[in-house]
Write a structure and sequence with these properties.
Number of strands: 0
Helix content: over 70%
Number of helices: 4
Largest sheet: none
Mean pLDDT: 87
Structural class: mainly alpha
Strand content: under 5%
Low-confidence stretches: none
Shape: flat
Radius of gyration: 18 Å
Number of domains: 1
């Protein structure tokens, strides 16, 4: 059995790329918002950063589980950057999306 220090070092060396990608996406998102001169409250900033980090994390887990390590270097920051817009789209169209998914399973042939 390996020591906890070695296992921690292995975990960090394997996952630092994902963390760097998420951080790059969050920095790009904040920079974009500042360049667009959006006036946001502190809670709105926290919400945007939280949703962006969540999408970046989900994308990193998906890329890691499917072996897309090299592609994940650009997919994760892009998903992090677009996470807020994806959430806005899903919230605005959740009924239409849900109905489309349900019709796949409920239509009789």
């Amino acid at each position: 059995m390996e020591s906890p220090h070695n296992e921690l070092a292995e975990f960090i060396s394997r996952c630092w790329v994902w963390g760097a990608g998420i951080l790059a996406g969050v920095v790009a998102k904040i920079s974009t918002e500042l360049m667009m001169k959006r006036k946001l409250s502190l809670l709105q900033w926290l919400g945007i950063v939280g949703v962006s980090m969540f999408f970046g994390y989900l994308t990193a887990v998906w890329c890691d589980s499917n072996g897309w390590v090299s592609q994940g270097r650009y997919i994760v920051p892009l998903a992090t950057l677009m996470g807020e817009k994806i959430t806005i789209y899903l919230m605005a169209n959740y009924r239409k999306i849900g109905d489309a998914i349900l019709t796949i399973f409920t239509t009789k042939k």
